[in-house]
TrEMBL record:
Transmembrane segments: none
GO BP annotations listed: proteolysis
Protein name per its UniProtKB record: Peptidase M14 domain-containing protein
Origin organism lineage: Eukaryota, Metazoa, Ecdysozoa, Arthropoda, Hexapoda
Pfam families: Peptidase_M14
Species of origin: Cardiocondyla obscurior
Length: 112
């Protein structure tokens, strides 16, 4: 997910962030079939103030800013059982590699 969490207003590069996010979650799904969603935080999950990605975007003006929620969809919340920790790390790493490749293909990093 990407900024902002405190509003449903879209960033100037919303479409780009969404497209990069799609590449990332596609790569993440390959190993274990885990499904994720991408979009701005407020529209994807709920309004959330004070998030780190909002701070990084708002204060530092970075173009590519994302955050992840853990893979569980309600049973364990943010406290995953030990058996899910390594698979979560593996699929997240796969998604980060895809994210970096896609961002690079789009000319990032860009300066503010």
């Amino acid at each position: 997910m990407f900024p902002y969490g405190h509003t449903t207003d879209h960033l100037e590069n919303h479409d780009e962030l969404y497209d990069i996010g799609l590449k990332s979650i596609s790569a993440l799904k390959q190993k274990y079939g885990t499904s994720y969603e991408t979009g701005n935080i407020a529209e994807t999950i709920y309004i959330a103030t004070g998030s780190t990605v909002d701070y990084v975007k708002g204060v530092h003006g970075k173009h590519i800013v994302y955050t992840y929620e853990l893979r569980d969809q309600g049973r364990y919340g943010f406290l995953l059982p030990p058996a899910q920790i390594i698979p979560t790390g593996e699929e997240t790493l796969d998604s980060l590699v895809a994210m970096f490749k896609e961002a690079k293909s789009r000319g990032h990093p860009k300066t503010v």
